[in-house]
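## retry 2 of 3
previous attempt timed out at serialization; input unchanged, resubmitting
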Amino acid sequence: MKNVTDSFVSLVHWPFAGSFGFNTDILATNPINLSVVLGVLIFFGKGVLSDLLDNRKLRILNTIRNSEELQGGAIERLEKARARLRKVEMEADQFRVNGYSEIEREKLNLINSTYKTLEQLENYKNETIQFEQQRAINQVRQRVFQQALQGALGTLNSCLNKELHLRTISANIGMFGALKEITD
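## retry succeeded, writing output
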């Protein structure tokens, strides 16, 4: 308790300052100085600080608003780009599908035309074979006929004498004459 009374006693014994000066007692002067400085700052700086804070608040709000507008524009451009990408992907898929179907169609057309060409070649081959067979048959007939004719002529020449030969010629001339009269 003596400490508490000593502190009051020491307040009574403070010497009065004869002149203006700095009090170097930090514990005694610091809360007083701080309260005075804060009071002055609050009183005079309240309007300035309020204006600064309001301006800062407005700048922050404008920045946020601009950022939101930019974000909205970026989202809109992103959606447009995604829509274009989807459209291009769909077109690419259509081209791919159409390309594959076109390739399949061309493949089938090529196969069909190849079969038709092969059929035509087969028909031409068969016709050529038939033609060649017919020609060969005709050649064989001509040879057989020529050989038979030569054999018959040889037989006739050996068997016929002049008189028989002249009678045969006369009979043939008579037949041709009769045919001519019938046709006229």
